[in-house]
Structures are given as C-alpha cells and as structure tokens.
Specification:
Blueprint (H helix, E strand, L loop, with lengths): L3 H7 L8 E3 L8 H4 L5 H11 L3 E4 L5 H4 L8 E5 L1 E3 L12 E3 L3 H7 L4 E3 L9 H16 L4 E10 L9 E3 L2 E5 L24 H14 L4 E3 L2 E5 L7 H9 L4 E3 L5 H7 L3 E11 L11 H25 L28 H6 L1 H4 L4
C-alpha cells in the first residue's frame, strides 16, 4: 500500500504541515492542565481555523472523522493514552501505547500516526514506557526512526535557526533506563557511532536538494537531564569537551534504537546560543519556543523528502544497524531459560 496518498492529505502544496495537537498536557502548563471540557467543541474550533492536520486519540478521532465533506484537516492518530490531564499533574504520570495502533489508524482513515518517545525528568514510569514504545515500533516492523530535537548551540558558527545532523553523543543524563536487557541477560552493542550514518546521509541529501536551509553535517550533541537549562560553568565546560550542541532529547532513544536494530538519526534545530555566549541573554523558554516554531516548517519539509527516499529493502543500506545484536550477547546460551527466550524473542529471536 502506497503511503503517498496519505502524505498528500497531510502536507500542503508547499510541503508544509501545520498539525494541531489539542489533547495533551505534558508540559505542565496551566493552560493544558485545566483540561478540555468539550472535546467536540474544541475540534470544531480547530477545524474552523483550517490547519493541515489535527492530532487526536482513538477515542476522540470520531469528532473529526464524522464531519461530512472531504475538505477538512487530516487525522494524525496518537498511539498512546495518558493521564496527564486535570487541574493537577498526577504522580506518577503515564503514557501507554494502545493495542494495534497501525490497524486502528487504517480503520479510522488517519493520514499517519504519532508515537511519543517523550520523556519528563523525574518521571521514571515514562522512561520505562519509552522502552515499551521502541519495542512496539520494532514489533510493527519499523526500520527507521527520524527524530527532531530542539538544541542550544555551543559554537559561534552553529547559529540559531540552523539545522545540525549530529554524528556523536555525550550522555549527561542521570536517571533514564537505557537498555532493554536485564534479568541476567547482558548485551553490549557497539555505540561508537550513535547515529545511523546511512539515515543521516538521507537527511543531508534531502536538505541539500531543498537548497534553502542552512545546515551542518556532523557535531557532538551533549544530552543533559533537564528540565533546568545549563549553568554558565557547565556550558563552558561542554565547549572545552568539544561538544557542539546541547539538548535534553536523543537519549535514551538512540541507545534503545540501536539495541532494537532500528536505524536512528536526528535533525537538531538550533533555537539559541547556550549561556556560554557572552552577548546572549540567559536562555528562556520563550526564545526556545519562538525559534523552534520557525524551524518546524523546514523540519517537516525535510522529513517529507526523506520519507520518499527510504529504500524499500534495508538490505541495500550501508549501515550495520540491522545486525547490531549479532555479536553483542554476552550471556551464556545455556543459562537462557525458556521464559527469557520468550521475553527477548522480539530482539533476539533470530540469534537464539
């Protein structure tokens, strides 16, 4: 089944897509946590504003899809359900993947699905569900993950509104589970090159062909725990280490994707100079969001171009991501019980 008819519903003629998500409260902002009293009325208001797409959950999708006529926003189906609603944020929060998400998306005639790999600092439940989401993508046969990150710049020439295709990571996170393997199962995958080079090549080719987006190929991405931004001392230290950009995403996703043998690459959108920059004001959420919004249209154009370039058979790819676990398992096979074999069949079935 070709994805192009669905993509044409999702993207405007100029290649941009304005997708409005009206049902989440992950950022703990008062306006989100107040909840949505009348989802039907909310959908009507958004439809009247004529975006390209509206992001809804399975239970809410009918408010859009039951509307008559073909000229309406496309449905972007959320593949998780969450408890991040109400006047106070629950503790713990969760975001649980729904059953058979792709089948439900086809049934609801969605243009695409969105999978949350989003993490909230100090919410261990969500970190574990990030593992579940990567595993779910693996079970669906997903072979590529293209992510988009907001980052600060640690270099003068990586200016705000530039894009970066990083090739290295420095992990400064503290409490994020970052491996599928436990219960006596030990695997050491190669992570010397944390981003898939073949997928990064596709990203660069798409950007180069578009011709009007300033970008940089290569860079060291230091991923910090957050949610606070860095101190000036930390920012200067990361520059001394040779880091080029700084953000709070990409980990543990990159590590989990490698263990799942999924190609992973990212478009890092520079929103500001980090606080090392003497001429800059302290990093603010307002600045980050304003510049990120300006980068969104370019990121969408790139993702659309890359989707058309992905090979039908990953065997033609020049990377080793699809066999990352081939020689990684350290556990003696004689100690692997039937229960463990069943538990890890998704990841290790072809090797055990």
């Amino acid at each position: 089944m070709s994805v192009h008819p669905r993509l044409r519903r999702l993207f405007a003629a100029d290649g941009a897509c304005f997708d409005v998500a009206i049902d989440h409260g992950f950022f703990n902002e008062a306006s989100f946590l107040a909840g949505i009293e009348d989802i039907g009325a909310a959908v009507t208001t958004i439809v009247d504003a004529a975006p390209d797409a509206i992001q809804l959950t399975v239970g809410q999708a009918h408010h859009l899809q039951d509307r008559p006529g073909a000229h309406k926003p496309a449905l972007v189906l959320r593949t998780d359900v969450a408890n991040v609603y109400g006047k106070t944020l629950p503790n713990p929060v969760f975001s649980q993947l729904i059953a058979d998400p792709v089948e439900q998306a086809v049934r609801l005639d969605a243009a695409c699905v969105v999978v949350n790999l989003f993490l909230i600092p100090k919410q261990a439940t969500l970190y574990h569900q990030c593992l579940a989401n990567i595993a779910a993508l693996k079970s669906l046969g997903v072979e590529w993950i293209l992510s988009v990150s907001a980052v600060g710049s640690l270099r003068e020439d990586y200016a705000p509104l530039h894009l970066v295709i990083p090739d290295q990571l420095v992990d400064r996170t503290k409490c994020r589970p970052n491996s599928f393997f436990a219960d006596g199962m030990v695997a050491h995958v190669s992570f010397a090159d944390p981003f898939c080079s073949a997928t990064s090549d596709l990203l660069e080719a798409a950007i180069r062909d578009l011709g009007d987006i300033p970008y940089h190929r290569g860079g060291v991405y230091v991923c910090i725990e957050g949610p606070q931004f860095s101190t000036k001392a930390e920012s200067r230290l990361y520059r001394q280490w040779g880091c080029d950009i700084i953000g709070m995403t990409a980990l543990p996703e990159a590590k989990l994707a490698r263990e799942a043998e999924i190609c992973y690459a990212t478009i890092a959108c520079v929103t500001d100079y980090d606080v090392w920059h003497a001429s800059e004001e302290a990093v603010s959420l307002e600045l980050v969001v304003a510049n990120l919004t300006r980068n969104v249209a370019n990121a969408q154009r790139i993702l659309r171009a890359v989707a058309a370039r992905l090979p039908a058979d990953r065997a033609d790819a020049t990377c080793d991501c699809s066999s990352a676990l081939a020689n990684a398992l350290i556990t003696d096979p004689s100690y692997i019980t039937a229960d463990l074999r069943k538990k890890y069949a998704l990841l290790l079935g072809k090797y055990l």
